[in-house]
Design a protein that fits this description.
By secondary structure, the protein is α/β, with parallel strands linked by helices. It has 20 helices and 16 strands. It is 44% helix and 12% strand. The structure holds zinc ion.
Length: 558
Amino acid sequence: MFARISARLRPMIRVETLVLVVVAWMLAVFNGGWWSAVGAGRDWSSPQNWLFLLACFAALTLLHFAVIVAVSNRWIVRPLLTLLVVLAAATAYFVHTFNVILDPTMMENVLRTDKNEVADLLNFELFAWIIGWSALPVAFIWLVRLQPVPLLRAFFIRLGTVIAALVLGVLAIVPISRDISSFMRNQREARYLITPANYLWGLALNTFHNSRDADAPREPVGRDARLLPAAGTGPPHVLVLVIGETARAENFSLLGYSRETNPELAQAGVTVFSAVKSCGTSTEVSVPCMFSPYGRANYDEHRIRRSETLLDVLVRAGYRVHWIDNQSGCKGVCKGPGVEFEKIDPRSDAGLCSDGECFDEIMARRLQAELPDVHGNTVFVLHMMGNHGPAYFRRYPPAYRKFTPDCATAELRDCSREEVVNAYDNAILYTDHVLASLVKILGEQSTRLDSAMLYVSDHGESLGEKGLYLHGIPYAIAPEQQTHVPMIVWLSKTLTDSGDVNAQCVNAKANEPLSHDNLFHSVLGLMDVSTSAYRADRDLFAGCRGPTDRSLVQSGNH
Ligand SMILES: [Zn+2]
C-alpha cells in the first residue's frame, strides 16, 4: 500500500540510519522509569546535569544501536524493529503502571505465566498504549525505502558502523563514568529499567538457562530417606500441604490486621506463625526454593532447579505424593518419578469454574473426594490460585464480596487504592474459607487418619505502598509486604492425642522467626522421615514430637 504513496514522501535511507532513528526513539520514549530514576534529585539549572543526561542518552543509544545493527539486514530489519518497538512499548506500560523492574527473574515469570494469567494482564489500556506509542516509529519503519547496497560492501559498512558505535558509545560514558557508576552502585536494580536491553537480556539469559537445565540429570537429595519404625504403626499419616498465592501476612486478621479477614480459621484451632519470610518475591523463585533443602540461606537458583526436591524424598520414604494444581503448575518440583500431578480440570465443576478458571474451593472438593480412598501415608500438595493479581476480583465468588466497593477490573489504575485493597481482602477472606474447609474435611476423617494441614503463601504483594503494586521486586530491595507471608498449621486430634506432636509446644513457636527454608525440614520432621538431608535446627516441629523426635534428630546429625 505504501507503493502508492509518492516516492517523494518515502525517503531513501540506509539500514544503519533506520536502526539509529528507531533505537533513539525507543531510548527516549520507552524509558520513563529509567530517566526519572537517573534524573532524580538533580539540579536542572546546572548545565552539567544536562550534559550528563545527554551523554547517558548518547551512550545508551549507541550501544543498543551497535547490537541491533549487527544482526540487521535489508530483509529482516523492518519486522525486527517493529517487534522490538512493540515489546518495548509493552514493557514501558508495565513499568509505568505497576512499577515493575524487568530483571531476568521477572522475565522468567513473564515467560512461564499460563494463558489465563496472561489474559488477566491483557487489556484495552495496554493495547491503546502500545498503539499510541508505537504508531509513529512503526509507520516510519515501513514507509522509508532502504538503499540497496551490494552484499560485500554492505558487510564492511555494517562492520565499520558497529565498531564506530561501540567506540563512540564508550567515549560518551567516559566523562560521566564517575557519576553513572556511583548511581549504579546505589541503585543496582535501575539497570533493569533500560528498555529494550532489559527484556532482550532477560530473554537471552532465560533461553540459555533453559537449554542448559533441560536435560541435565537431577542432583540426588536424601537418597537414604526412610520412614522411622515408630511411625509405621498406627493410622496413616496424611499431610495436606497448601501452597498459597500472593497472600501477604499484613492482611490476615489472625496476624493483627484490623479487618476481619480470617473469621473461619479463627474458630478452627490452628497455629498461625507471625514472622515467616518467603524465599523470593515471585512464584518462580519461591516454589522451587521452598521444596529444596538449600533454601534462601544457600540460594543457588541453578542448583535448586536441577536438584531433587522434598517430594522425591517423601516418595522414597514410602509416601504417596499427589499434587493438585489450581494454578500455573508445580514449577519443576513435581517432575520426579512417583509424584502424581493433577491439573484441576475447569470443565469438572460448572458451579466453581468459568472461563477456564476455578475458585479454590475446587481443591476442597477434590480432597473430599480423594480422602475416603486413602489407606496409606499420603501427602497432598494443593497449589492455590489464592490472591493472584491483578484480577483479585476473579478469585472469590459473590458470597465473599464483603469489602466494597471492590476493584472489578485488572486495570488497577482505574480503581482507587481502597478498591484494590477491598478486592484483595475479599480474596483473603475466601482463602480463609477454603483453608477452614480443608481443616473440616480432615477433621471428619481424623479417627481414621493422623492428619495435618500446613499452609504457607509463596510471596506477598504490594498494594500501593511506596507506589508499588503486585510483586516480583528483586529480593534485596523488596518491601516487607512482598516477603512477609502467612503460615498456618493445623494438627488433627489423633495426631496430638497420640502424643505424636505436642500442640502446645508448636503453639509456643508461633512468633519465632521462620522462613520458607523451614518447610523442607519441617515436613520431613512432621512426617517422621529420617534422612541425612534433614536438619533438626530448621524443623519447626523439632522438640515438639513424641517418641520419634530423638531418633529423627540422631538420624539428621550423621
Ligand atoms: Zn506467586
